[in-house]
Specification:
By secondary structure, the chain is α/β, with parallel strands linked by helices. Helix content is 29%, strand content 16%. The radius of gyration is 25 Å and the shape is globular.
């Protein structure tokens, strides 16, 4: 790209560069698909609400944001913001702090008490939503906006699904989660807790429901085979996090070993430190670049004193200790045992090797097929049973809250079309995201990103 010569000269001389008089003419702005928007699993119109927020119109920006995402204060805290990774600005200086602005708008809405009116006329159609996690809440919210009568049934005693029982309070304060759920309830959505569904056809018939959305989370921790003596203390990470949420007494001891490499493993290790463990170590059998946990989560854990044993596996667990075997990668990148062992202090071993959704209750729902332990759906999130849709952890796709919100919203649109007797319609934007190379970056000045402050880690 040739440097515009006129930027160092007076406005009159810019005519020689065929750019027009700089004080008279403006650049031509073309409406393209922003890569941040294309990368948002929740389908947010990121550019629109950022542009609106820029001039201080915070309520208008928030209202544009919540057309797609009913939980901005929550997602401003727990989303891994792929939008910022894709942001073109990151190739100029640093990415726009999209997630920080989302959190600010969400918090401001809670502080100001902004609500969301339902303007659509009631349709008289009833929809059952199973599960109150991000997918279920998103679906219920969008269906209510469309005028449908929505009931959410939640098996647990509290609402929020894995946002409550799988994400620690230090990442997601419960008053924030409760406030955004309360806003959805104020729209007329009915929530019934302690009311799991064990027979879908019967539940729909008894409640007079015309359609259903299945948004149950993956709340069953997988079990890894770890040879353990009778006196070894072995827990699964989800049980630990749920126990902490419900204020059950948890005694882990001074030394805790967490087996796994995902975000749940990191959450479990950081929670152990907050419960008083002086030493929390994550044992992971691959290298850091293969670790599925988000980089920011790993960095925060390391800063808090969590240690990670890369290329290691637990060969034996006994009372007060574990035996760790060192691994090495073969030519295909797969870890192989080396026969080299080390003993580490460990009063408790926490397993964080994955999780599954409990779907046995769907056995009698003809047409709702399970594929590799997940609910099978089409591109519109419809199952093979008429009027039954699914999303979130239950369909085995990307298991993040942001993906779940987007899936719940898209499924809600599919349910609405089903209830109105319309055909399936996809709403994917056909445009190609605008590349950095297509921008006239000389028109932009450098601007440092604002760093979001953090509280000191505390128990």
């Amino acid at each position: 790209m040739t440097l515009p010569f006129a930027i160092t000269l007076g406005p009159g001389s810019s005519r020689s560069n065929h750019t027009g008089a700089w004080r008279v003419e403006r650049p031509v702005y073309q409406d393209g698909l922003p890569p941040c928007q294309a990368s948002c699993p929740a389908g947010e119109a990121v550019r629109d609400w950022l542009y609106t927020a820029e001039d201080g119109s915070y309520e208008a920006a928030w209202r544009r944001l919540v057309r797609d995402n009913p939980l901005p204060a929550v997602m401003g805290r727990i989303c891994y913001h792929p939008c910022e990774t894709a942001c073109n600005r990151g190739q100029l200086d640093s990415s726009v702090g999209i997630n920080s602005v989302e959190r600010f708008l969400g918090d401001e809405a809670i502080r100001q008490g902004w609500d969301i009116p339902v303007t659509a006329a009631p349709t008289g159609r009833r929809v059952l939503v199973v599960g109150s996690g991000p997918a279920g809440l998103s679906a219920a919210y969008q269906l209510a906006l469309l005028g449908h009568d929505v009931t959410v049934r939640e098996a647990a005693d509290k609402l929020g699904g894995m946002m409550r029982y799988g994400i620690p309070r230090y990442r997601l304060p419960r008053e924030v989660l409760d406030a955004e759920i309360a806003r959805i309830a104020a729209m007329g959505v009915r929530f019934v807790t302690g009311s799991g569904v064990d027979d879908l056809p019967a539940a729909m018939a008894e409640g007079g429901f015309d359609a259903a959305f299945l948004g149950v989370g993956a709340q069953n921790g997988k079990r890894a085979y770890v040879p353990a003596g009778d006196s070894a203390r072995v827990l699964d990470a989800l049980s630990l996090l749920a126990a902490v949420e419900d204020h059950w007494p948890v005694t882990l001891g001074r030394h805790v070993a967490v087996y796994g490499g995902g975000n749940t493993a990191v959450d479990a290790a950081r929670t152990a430190r907050r419960l008083g463990a002086s030493d929390a170590v994550i044992v992971y059998r691959r290298t850091r670049d293969r670790m599925p946990a988000h980089d920011a989560e790993v960095e925060e854990a390391l800063a808090e004193g969590i240690t990670v044993r890369w290329l290691s596996t637990i060969a034996q667990a006994d009372q007060g200790s574990i035996t760790v075997e060192r691994m090495e990668l073969d030519e295909t990148g797969f870890p192989q045992p080396t026969g080299e062992y080390e003993t580490l202090a460990a009063d408790t071993v926490v397993l964080a090797v994955g999780q599954d959704a409990e779907l046995g209750w769907l056995a009698g729902a003809e047409g709702v097929d399970l594929v590799n332990g997940a609910i099978g759906v089409d591109a519109g999130f419809a199952t093979g049973r008429a009027g039954v849709f699914a999303g979130g952890d239950a369909i085995g796709a990307e298991r993040t809250a942001t993906h779940s919100i987007g899936q719940g919203a898209r499924a809600a649109r599919g349910i609405d079309r089903y209830l109105r007797g319309l055909g399936v319609q996809t709403a994917d934007d056909p445009r190609v995201p605008t590349a950095f190379q297509a921008l006239n970056t000389w028109y932009f000045s450098d601007a440092p990103a604002t760093v979001r402050p953090e509280l000191e880690a505390a128990r």
